[in-house]
Design brief:
about 100 residues, mainly alpha, Monooxygenase, elongated
Length: about 100
């Protein structure tokens, strides 16, 4: 019975982490998507966070024998938001002349 409790605790911790990550990340991403303001976003940092989220998403879906749903779903949300914000940032930087402020 002790092993079942450990697995349940492990799953609970994963879901708490998942929900915390999404609620921590999503408001900023939605604000950026809504306002299109990317002035405060550091491109290298944001790109690396997006790549990390994508890799964690793959790890969650490829885990054997069971998919790690909390890991997969959290990083699916953050990867999608990262890709959208990254696209907005690229467009904004191109409009401003490749990131050079006038």
């Amino acid at each position: 019975m002790e092993q079942v409790e450990q697995v349940a605790a492990y799953e609970l911790i994963g879901w708490i982490a998942s929900i915390s990550m999404i609620f921590g990340y999503l408001p900023q991403a939605l604000r950026t998507i809504r306002t299109r303001n990317t002035d405060g976003i550091a491109m290298p940092t944001f790109l690396m966070m997006g790549i990390g989220s994508f890799c964690f998403m793959l790890q969650g879906i490829l885990h054997k024998p069971d998919i790690l749903w909390a890991l997969f779903l959290t990083n699916l949300v953050t990867t999608t938001c990262s890709a959208i914000v990254f696209g907005i940032k690229i467009c904004n930087d191109c409009i401003k002349g490749n990131g050079k402020k006038s």
